[in-house]
């Protein structure tokens, strides 16, 4: 079982000192419990394994396993609230609802979630799984679970997720930035960019709304609906890097009337995980350097989606590429502050912030679940018996 979180020394050391929720997903007989034991052997007394089997969850009868699922969630919440470094959920976790709920528990308790499936050759082979499982499931039951696994195999997005201590550090830095900019006469002269009328005051700390766990998105997948999502997930470098530690370098903080973010400077190795068309997809008319869109969203104005942060950053990059370097306002404690017009302010950090992060993925409630709408009928995945 080749996984970065089992083999890479720096990743193992980082996870030991952080808070990680391993959400194991896999079919009966796929080697999932063996993977759980391997994680337990690696992290020893820092790790707690919560088994779906021990709580009576039957993957082939998920709807009838409500009490067991509730008990697992309660055990996860208890472990996380106690500050256990590594919590492992050993269950099939083959439905979107379960993945989203466990991700929610991780976020509520400031844990980074890793969604991991065994890499055995037979992990989705119906014939082999039917022979290996001790549950006595028939081919039809296994096949139904395979289809569900396929449907939930792609996340909302992939990215690097900051650990809680680094999130707090970056948020404090962002608040310092907002406080410094908001107090400047130069900002007050342009406050109309934010308030719509020049005489109105703006409290920048209240203007931006927090958007959850801090991360740098690499690939937006929309659960497989986005172009190139499946191809990205199947890349060898993505599979090998999943669950590994990376050191992100944050070089600037910026704010616009729409978003608050941090610019990320990617290394050559990190660029291997960056989609080749990420910049072209946003600004088709420009030839921007790969990785120009890399950022961490720190907040958004009311009604603004986090995707806007990267677009705002690209506007600044494009402006600079075209020779407009903006207007230097003054040097803040964080670094030199520049105004680029139209309410866009950026401070280049005199001391770039190096922040460790884990390459993982995110599952959340689907849009129809948030809105209460009936889900659209989607095209069925072809699930043939292997």
From TrEMBL:
Subcellular location: Melanosome; Membrane
EC assignment: 3.1.4.37
Domain of life of the organism encoding this protein: Eukaryota
InterPro entries from the UniProt entry: CNPase, CNPase_cat, Cyclic_Pdiesterase, P-loop_NTPase
Membrane topology, from the record: Lipid-anchor
Catalytic reactions of this protein: a nucleoside 2',3'-cyclic phosphate + H2O = a nucleoside 2'-phosphate + H(+)
Keyword terms of this UniProt record: Hydrolase, Lipoprotein, Membrane, Methylation, Phosphoprotein, Prenylation, RNA-binding
Pfam family, one: CNPase
Record domain Cyclic nucleotide phosphodiesterase catalytic: where: 154-384
Biased segments, Basic and acidic residues type: 366-377
Residue segments, region Disordered: 366-386
Role of this protein: Catalyzes the formation of 2'-nucleotide products from 2',3'-cyclic substrates. May participate in RNA metabolism in the myelinating cell, CNP is the third most abundant protein in central nervous system myelin.
Protein family: Belongs to the 2H phosphoesterase superfamily. CNPase family.
Quaternary context: Exists as monomers and homodimers.
PANTHER family found in the cross-reference section: 2',3'-CYCLIC-NUCLEOTIDE 3'-PHOSPHODIESTERASE (PTHR10156:SF0)
Protein name as annotated: 2',3'-cyclic-nucleotide 3'-phosphodiesterase
Source species taxonomy: Eukaryota, Metazoa, Chordata, Craniata, Vertebrata
């Amino acid at each position: 079982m080749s996984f970065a979180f089992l083999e890479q020394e720096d990743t193992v050391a980082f996870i030991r000192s952080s808070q990680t929720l391993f959400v194991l997903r896999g079919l009966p007989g796929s080697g999932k419990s063996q993977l759980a034991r391997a994680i337990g052997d690696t992290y020893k007394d820092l790790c707690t394994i919560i088994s779906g089997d021990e709580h009576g969850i039957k993957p082939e009868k998920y709807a009838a396993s409500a009490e067991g699922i509730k008990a697992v969630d309660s055990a996860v919440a208890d472990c996380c609230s106690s500050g256990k470094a590594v919590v492992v959920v050993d269950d099939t976790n083959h439905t979107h609802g379960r993945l989203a709920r466990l991700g929610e528990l991780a976020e509520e308790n400031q844990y980074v979630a890793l969604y991991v499936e065994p890499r055995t050759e037979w992990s989705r082979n119906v014939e082999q799984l039917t022979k290996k499982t001790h549950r006595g499931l028939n081919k039809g039951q296994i096949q139904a679970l395979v289809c569900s696994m396929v449907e939930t195999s792609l996340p909302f997005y992939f990215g690097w997720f900051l650990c809680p201590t680094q999130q707090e550090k970056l948020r404090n830095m962002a608040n310092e930035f907002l406080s410094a900019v908001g107090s400047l006469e130069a900002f007050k002269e342009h406050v109309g960019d934010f308030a719509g009328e020049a005489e109105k005051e703006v409290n920048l700390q209240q203007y931006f709304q927090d958007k959850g766990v801090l991360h740098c998105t690499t690939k937006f997948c929309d659960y497989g609906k986005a172009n190139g999502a499946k191809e990205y997930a199947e890349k060898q470098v993505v599979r090998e890097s999943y669950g590994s530690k990376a050191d992100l370098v944050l070089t600037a903080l910026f704010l616009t009337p729409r978003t608050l973010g941090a610019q990320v400077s990617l290394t050559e190795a990190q660029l291997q995980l960056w989609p080749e068309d990420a910049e072209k997809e946003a600004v088709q008319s420009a030839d921007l350097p790969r990785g120009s869109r890399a950022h961490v969203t720190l907040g958004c104005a009311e009604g603004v989606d986090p995707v806007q942060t990267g677009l705002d950053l690209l506007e600044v990059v494009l402006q600079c590429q075209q020779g407009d370097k903006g207007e230097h306002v003054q040097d803040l404690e964080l670094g030199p502050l520049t105004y680029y017009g139209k309410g866009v302010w950026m401070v280049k950090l005199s001391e770039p912030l190096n922040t460790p992060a884990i390459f993982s993925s995110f599952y959340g409630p689907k849009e129809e679940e948030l809105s209460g709408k009936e889900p659209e009928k989607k095209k069925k995945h072809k699930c043939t018996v292997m």
